[in-house]
Amino acid sequence: MGAARTTDRRRRIAVPWGVLGLWIVVLVIASPFAAKLADVQRDRAVDYLPASADSTQVAKIQDRLPGGETTQMVVVYHRDGGLTGADRATAEEQIAEIAGAHRLAADPAGVPSKDGTTLMYPVASNEPGTDEEARDALVHEVRDVARGGDGLSVEVGGEGALATDASEVYNSLDGPLLYTTVAVVALLLIVIYRSPFLWLVPLVVAGVANYLSMAVAYGLNQWFGTSVSGQSSGIMTILVFGAGTDYALLLVSRYREELRRVERPYDAMTAALRGCGPAVLASSGTVAAGLLCLLAADLNSSRGMGPLGTVGVLCALLAMLTLLPVVLVLLGRRVFWPLIPRYGSAPKARRSLFAAMGSSAGRRPVAVLVGGGLLLGALALGMFNLPGDLKQEDSFTSRPDAVAAMQTLAAAYPERGTQAISVITPAGRADTTLAEIRDTPGVDSAETGRSGDGWTEISVLATSPPQSAGETATIEDLRDRLDGSYVGGPSAEQIDLKDTNARDRMIVVPIVLLSVLLILVALLRSLVAPLLLVAAVVAVWGASLGIGGLVFGPVFGFEGTDPGLGLLSFVFLVALGVDYGIFLMHRMREESLGGAEPVAAALTALRTTGGVIASAGLVLAATFAVLTSMPMVQLVELGFVIAVGVLLDTFLVRTYLVTSASVALRRKVWWPGALSKEPAGAVPPKEPERVTAAAH
């Protein structure tokens, strides 16, 4: 007996310190790799484009042409009352200085506008190649030379300048995104835990998980070529802190309960892990499976986000189920001060908000279910008010120099295109292709450029402004006419992004639904309950997009919707929404296995998990809401829709609709599993009101 006690004591000491030591070793090994993640982050167009699209092939072939990738800019000189002779002389001097300092693909020639207010100089250089830092340096050097004053405005736009402005925005996200996320999570944890110390533990552990995820993401990039962009790495950080804090809330809540029943913190944590571990593992597995379905996407940015998001969730899971428990055990009960859960004590009795919500759902379950469904359906109608496709110049919440140049050009040259369409054709057919291009309706001019590696580059200008319906028709016409050639460039990229997102939705959405449904069937041993959860999260997705349609244009003033918003918001909301459904239904199943009647099991599950699910939902919604403070419209839209969806899921769907459906269906919710069958000699079910009162 004494030997057994000694062994237990040694285990209670050795295991926590051993796990902590192992984590220190892991972090030491991961540290140099995590620091390199920023070095492999790429935000070039080819890193976002569809893998099989024309525009992607154009970008890849251009990299292999003499001089490599071309950085294309447009220097725009503008005076409202009309350019003066001095203005034109200034422009010539500055362009000559730029040409003398850099290796340009051709001598820039000025193109005046018909109204005489604007003069544009196309400037192209192969000097930077594919080096993003060199490209950004070139753009900044051109901007340093091209300066106005005294009523003359000078702006540098074009594809290269726009890429530089977008890259700087994404590069600036890492610090503010991380700091804002940490601050938001810290504030919510302080409010939830009401402790000056406890909030710091899961936050630090989440930070450790984020550091580990950076190292793993770098490894994926090196070993498997997984693309890492500013968007995907930012989403990974959000998921680590959001999902990780959710898992911590569930574990800490269960641990606090066990500390009142079990004397030693080590044993209490062991019991807590046994109790909530399966639900946490199942929920994280569901999220990971949903995100991995993005590997079926053809869009590079979406396909790369799947593995990185999965890495974030799994690193958060690993940290919260290993590092967090040992830190809490080593700190003991005092970490909960001033609300320390004493051994043998009972929690303070108070009226549960979720018991009251469950009571209202239990009295008229069908009415609550129908009313909630109609509300979600009405909100989903707002999708018809979503603005059209987002244009490049509308992608920023503030107006950078490149966007200002595009707007100036659009106003000054309404009769012609100001952004080149790139055509790549086999070198042996260059003359024939050039003739076909010039004969194409909507083409203003076409000139042959570089040749190499069996290909020739042709630069085309349309008669319509960039990203207009006329230019889109011209690009599509060129693609139909030019067999064996590829048509790309900034406007063609936007067309391919839209078309590929539509294709990806048709493929990825069914895969996500099927994979999540199969996991839920295996976990809950039922078909009805998984179908109920999946239907609920799909309804939440539609309602969230509908709310976005009501505010994006009228309130936020956005001119368009990112083409990838529908797919990405669907994957995240389905995966994360089912996550909370697992917490609730797992507890409901646990109560049913313990002998509780169906209605009592549903209401008890809501009462016992409602608080932690609400806290987790608030934290997750807040972390995604951080994206709404970022300067990119697509990030704001994605963060808003997911945050709203998580709140709808937490406070409407989980609390009322899933609970009321479970009450209305009773044992049928577990069909065709064993729990769906009435036990032998069972007493007829009581009325919901009486069961509800007993459950309270």
What this model shows, in words?
With 696 residues, the chain is of the alpha+beta class. It contains 22 helices and 8 strands. The strands form 2 sheets. It has a 4-stranded antiparallel β-sheet. Helix 7 runs parallel beside helix 9. It is elongated. The two termini are 43 Å apart.
List keywords for this structure.
696 residues, alpha+beta, single chain, disordered C terminus, 8 strands
Short summary:
The protein is built from 22 helices and eight strands.
Q: What structural class results from the helix and strand content?
A: alpha+beta
Distance between the termini: 43 Å
Number of strands: 8
| Average pLDDT for all residues | 84
Give the helices and strands as they follow along the chain. HHHEHEEHEHHHHHHHHHEHEEHEHHHHHH
Walk me through the topology:
Blueprint: H1 2-34, H2 37-40, H3 54-64, E1 71-78, H4 85-101, E2 111-112, E3 118-125, H5 132-145, E4 153-157, H6 159-171, H7 174-193, H8 200-224, H9 230-261, H10 265-292, H11 300-331, H12 353-363, H13 365-380, H14 401-412, E5 421-426, H15 430-438, E6 443-452, E7 455-462, H16 469-481, E8 486-488, H17 490-524, H18 528-551, H19 565-593, H20 598-625, H21 633-665, H22 688-695
Antiparallel strand pairs: 1-3, 1-4, 2-3, 5-7, 5-8, 6-7
Helix pairs in contact: 1-8, 1-11, 5-6, 7-9, 7-20, 8-9, 8-11, 9-10, 9-11, 9-20, 10-11, 10-17, 10-19, 12-20, 12-21, 12-22, 13-18, 13-21, 17-18, 17-19, 18-19, 18-21, 19-20, 19-21, 20-21, 20-22
